[in-house]
Design goal:
The two termini are 33 Å apart. Helix 8 crosses helix 13, helix 9 runs antiparallel to helix 13 and helix 10 packs across helix 12. By secondary structure, the chain is an alpha/beta fold. Strand 4, helix 4 and strand 5 form a beta-alpha-beta unit. The chain has 17 helices and nine strands. A nine-stranded mixed β-sheet has the order 1-2-3-5-4-6-7-8-9, sandwiched between helices. The chain is globular.
């Protein structure tokens, strides 16, 4: 295995974009179901308008140029190609920070926080809060593909990220993430306890019991009871996508890899359910160009199946309660999030917990300023 780190640029062939345009031109949308609302999936009338914008208004080349403004690299770790951004701060004393996305996200989630985190002085904040950023794509996601083997549990990804930081020459660093990234980040600390100075997660490092036992409700606070009830509502109303992705990811992939509209609908369903407030359309909360760039990173790389496989096919491992690394851990829980502190404490040394009454699952996209502020405050005393 080579430890070589190779510069990388995203350069999508025009032929691929032409194929996308042809597929969007010829897209066949289903007939609306009665009511044509979000209860049965993405409404046809809403998706049709977004597809039209994708076809005639969205500019991939502009998005590609935005991504390529940041230094990118690939390296092979444990047999798997890993693609990552590596943005060094202008501040020489900056703290290295590894940031991990989730599903159905991508490295594009972090575009709005890169500037404030790496160059706080240029964004009206204290230069001493600066970070060097390492932002990898999870194995099987985006350009960290194709997926070469199975077994990409949170523990294995944590070991891989620790190796990546060692190759980059970082001896002391922090980790941050949400969704899958929120589960992987503590594993980096368990693997490299002597090197990770702090773990920061949005949405919690692990989830409460699913489904949540009714007998445990009386012991909870009102806020925690609301989260527990939403967990059970999720099991009743939304669990189907996990059942499919964790059992038949390849069967699903045939439709999503071939159909950009199918890929768009699959991802937009989650962005509507998991952004906050839920009754507001996702493209009114997150810029639609950013939404489409995220979808493009799945469709252009054909990774619907491998991303589903890594994210959910290891579900039995994700449910385990690991040992506490002892590394200080900070949590910011937004309004959509369902983490409950007492279920996180047995396996994490929680030193900061912030509950917020707004914002959703996609923190870096929905509430970038608040996320940046919380990251800065958490790591300020750990540098």
């Amino acid at each position: 295995m080579s430890n070589e780190i190779t510069p990388f640029r995203i350069e999508i062939a025009q032929e691929q974009l032409d194929v996308l345009r042809d597929k969007l031109d010829a897209a066949r949308l289903p007939a609306p179901l009665p009511g044509d609302d979000w209860d049965t999936g993405v409404p046809v009338h809403w998706l049709r308008e977004l597809v039209e914008y994708w076809r005639t208004g969205y500019d991939w080349r502009a998005a590609e140029a935005e991504l390529n403004r940041y230094p990118q690299f690939v390296t092979e770790i444990d047999g798997q190609r890993i693609h990552f951004m590596h943005i060094r701060s202008v501040e020489p004393g900056a703290t290295p920070l590894l940031m991990t996305h989730g599903w159905p996200g991508s490295i594009a989630e972090f575009l709005d926080v890169i500037g404030p985190l790496t160059d706080p002085g240029a964004h009206g904040s204290d230069p001493s809060d600066a970070f060097h950023l390492v932002i990898p794509a999870l194995p099987g996601f985006g350009f960290s593909s194709p997926l070469v083997d199975s077994g990409w549990s949170r523990e294995r990804i944590g070991r891989t990220w620790a190796e990546l930081m060692q190759r980059l020459g970082y001896d002391r660093y922090g980790v941050q993430g949400g969704d899958i990234g929120g589960a992987v980040s503590p594993e980096v600390a368990r693997t490299a306890t002597d090197h990770v100075i702090g773990v920061h997660v949005n949405g919690g490092p692990n989830l409460p019991p699913i489904p949540f036992p009714e007998a445990d409700l009386p012991a909870l606070t009102d806020l925690e009871r609301d989260r527990a009830r939403r967990i059970n509502a999720f099991v009743r109303e939304e669990f189907g996508y996990i059942a499919i992705q964790s059992t038949r990811p390849q069967a699903l992939a045939y439709g999503l890899v071939d159909s950009p509209v199918g890929q768009l609908a699959w991802i937009m369903d989650k962005f509507r359910e998991w952004t906050h407030p839920r009754n507001v359309l996702p493209d009114k909360i997150i810029d639609r160009d950013r939404l489409l760039t995220n979808v493009m990173l799945y469709w252009l790389t054909g990774t619907a199946g491998s991303a589903a496989y890594v994210g959910y096919a290891q579900a039995d491992r994700w449910g385990e309660v690991p040992a506490d690394s002892g590394v200080p851990t900070g949590v910011i829980a937004f309004a959509h999030d369902v983490c409950i502190r007492r279920y996180c404490e047995p396996s994490n040394t929680i030193t900061r917990w912030v509950d917020v009454d707004h914002g959703g699952h996609f923190a870096a996209l929905e509430e970038p300023e608040l996320l940046v502020s919380d990251i800065r405050e958490f790591f300020r005393d750990l540098r």
